[in-house]
Amino acid sequence: MDYTLKLEVPEGVYEPLAKAAEQAGRTPEELAREWLVTAIRAGIEDPVEDFIGALRGNIPDWADEHDEYIGQTLVEQMKNMGNKCS
Question: Is there a single domain that holds both residue 83 and residue 64?
Fold first, then answer.
């Protein structure tokens, strides 16, 4: 079953959405729907979620912010790899 949502978004959100949709040859509504579905599925299918609570640590917000921490670590590792190649 499909549902219809009516969303009001600020201009700063709509304009980049409209531009991306135009570049993709789609409507803003189609692209917004695709992005929303992708974001929700990514949240539902978070592979790290199974480990939440399994490990002890001193980072109190790890359960909520693990994606951010993983991203920061990957960026640092990529920077270090770039320095080794120079």
Answer: yes
